[in-house]
């Protein structure tokens, strides 16, 4: 957004900037209150993991959440992308949320409604590709993790083996992968 000479455009730009400032102030307030509640042990930090993409992306994002769950943090998953968009990056092929169908015994808590709205707007932590997840020991307030984060290698291997038992022993006649 760059201001233009047109009065309507300048006014719209100012409204956009004001909205950004208000969201920034509200985010700081929400995070400060959440930090205080966590320090007083009234609540544990909640980590919400944004999920999108195909089954491989779903598996990676599930492991990201489990990285925090094993440290005792409350983990929720945002699957709204599949309801709102649910297409590949070119908009051609549908992506279906099938993680809970493939691994129904794994613990999975999603988040919906007003709680999701608050997290998406006031607790969002985005990143560039290949950044390592924030250290669970340094987390002082709840977060909404958006993007593809790297797990530390030792955590990735440990969590992968603990969560997913994928065997190639039985491949259906038409191809594909069957889990046992």
Task: Describe what is shown at a glance.
This protein has 180 residues and is α/β, with parallel strands linked by helices.
Structure description:
This protein has six helices and four strands, in the order H-E-H-E-H-H-H-E-E-H. It has helices at residues 7-39, 55-69, 80-84, 99-102, 113-122, 153-163; strands at 46-50, 74-78, 124-125, 143-145. Strand 1 (46-50), helix 2 and strand 2 form a beta-alpha-beta unit. The protein is globular and about 60 Å long. The protein starts with 6 loop residues before the first helix and ends in a 17-residue tail after the last helix.
Task: Record the SSE blueprint.
Layout: H1 7-39, E1 46-50, H2 55-69, E2 74-78, H3 80-84, H4 99-102, H5 113-122, E3 124-125, E4 143-145, H6 153-163
Order of helices and strands: HEHEHHHEEH
Strand order of the largest sheet: 2-1-4-3
Low-confidence stretches: none
| Strand segment tally | 4
Q: Which band does the percent of strand residues land in?
A: 5-15%
Give the termini distance in whole angstroms: 51 Å
Mean pLDDT: 82
Shape: globular
Q: What class, by secondary structure content?
A: alpha/beta
Helix fraction bin? 40-55%
> Over the alpha carbons, how many angstroms does the gyration radius reach?
20 Å
Specify the number of helices.
6
Major β-sheet annotation: 4 strands, parallel
């Amino acid at each position: 957004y760059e201001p233009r000479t047109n009065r309507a455009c300048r006014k719209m730009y100012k409204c956009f900037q004001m909205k950004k400032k208000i969201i920034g102030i509200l985010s700081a307030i929400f995070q400060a209150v959440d930090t205080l509640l966590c320090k007083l042990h009234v609540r544990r930090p909640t980590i919400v993991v944004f999920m999108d993409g195909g089954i491989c992306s779903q598996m990676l994002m599930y492991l990201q959440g489990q990285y925090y769950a094993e440290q005792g943090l409350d983990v929720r998953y945002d699957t709204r992308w599949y309801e709102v968009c649910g297409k590949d990056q070119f908009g051609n092929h549908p992506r279906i949320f099938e993680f809970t169908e493939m691994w129904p015994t794994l613990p999975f808590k999603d988040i919906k409604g007003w709680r999701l709205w608050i997290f998406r707007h006031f607790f969002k932590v985005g990143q560039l590709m290949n950044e390592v997840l924030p250290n669970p020991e340094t987390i002082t307030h709840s977060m909404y993790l958006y993007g593809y984060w790297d797990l530390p290698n030792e955590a990735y291997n440990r969590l992968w083996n603990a969560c997913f038992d994928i065997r190639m022993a039985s491949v259906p006649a038409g191809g594909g992968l069957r889990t046992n």
